[in-house]
Amino acid sequence: MPEPRNPRVEDLERGAALHWQAPETEPLGEWRLRAAAGFTGRANSALPVGDPGLPLAEAVTTVEEWYRRRDLRPMIVLPQGAAPEPLAGLLAERSWVPRPGPAFVMTAEMADIPASTIGVRFAPEPDAAFLGLYRYRGQDLPPIARTLMMSAPWQAFGSVHRNGRAAAVGRVSVAGEPGEQWGVLTAVEVDAACRRQGLGVAITSGLAAAAASQGARRMLLQVETGNAAARALYSRCGFRDSHRYHYMIAP
Asked: What pLDDT is recorded for position 19?
């Protein structure tokens, strides 16, 4: 059954898009088409929130053509409660299929995130410590990754060190109108040899504190539904599920 429209989720999805902005974007009515050489789903999918200004079937055709012209496989994200209700059925009729890795959006009030006594170092750009540890789905980062990581109105890159090297890293960004700013966590990674030592909580807490210093009152993150360890960590840090989303890709 399609999810009923949820204005809160719509606002969250629009706001989250400000934190990971593709170098190429184009409006389709209220929808956003985004391309970044194929690196990450968020930066290479259409965000179908609001009215595309066209009949839905024509809007999907426009999306397909836009991505094909860029040698990218057309992809649309379907946030639960924010995408037009008939869209999922229309995509299925056109033989679009789900992309692996559905995810939850989790949110937290800043006051609910526990403090940590473990120090976090910060840099305004992804430095050697960050780049030495962070891998996107286990892969080395392509050149365009830096463009995306520096695409928010404000961002910082945190690291926790052990024995002279980074043992945990993460990116935090802040965007939104004054008084309504959100902090968003992305690119969090803990060295496999240093897990179960409280570093996940430490980097999450430190990143949240950095966002709070920039005026953010709430935090948001996205985590795959199958990543039980990360979801448990974030739950311990005060985050709760907001909604699910998944990507659909064209044949």
From this structure: 98
Give CA–CA dist 185/172, Å, rounded.
Answer: 5
Which of helix, strand or coil describes residue 226?
Answer: coil
225 by DSSP, 3-state: which?
coil
**pLDDT given at position 139:** 79
For residues 119 and 116, give the distance between their C-alpha atoms in angstroms, rounded to a whole number.
8
The predicted structure's pLDDT at residue 127: 92
Residues 6+ apart with CB under 8 A from 206: 116, 118, 119, 120, 122, 158, 160
Amino acid at 123: A
Using CB atoms within 10 Å of the CB of residue 106, give its burial: 0 to 12 exposed, 13 to 18 middle, 19+ buried.
Answer: buried
- Fill in the amino acid letter for 116: S
| Closest listed residue to residue 81, CA positions, set 23, 6, 133, 163 | 6
Nearest to 21 by CA among 175, 141, 182, 208: 175
Structure tokens given for 141: 């980062």
Is residue 248 within 8 Å of 91, Cβ to Cβ? Answer: yes
- Ramachandran angles phi, psi of 48, nearest 5°: -90, 60
* C-alpha distances out from residue 198 to 127, 132, 163, Å: 23, 20, 16
pLDDT in tens, 25-35: 999 999 999 99
CB 237 within 8 A of CB 204: yes
Q: Which residues of the chain have pLDDT under 70?
A: 1-3
Q: What is the pLDDT of residue 3?
A: 61
Measured from the Cβ of residue 33, the count of other Cβ atoms closer than 10 Å reads 22
pLDDT for position 2:
53
pTM above 0.85, yes or no: yes
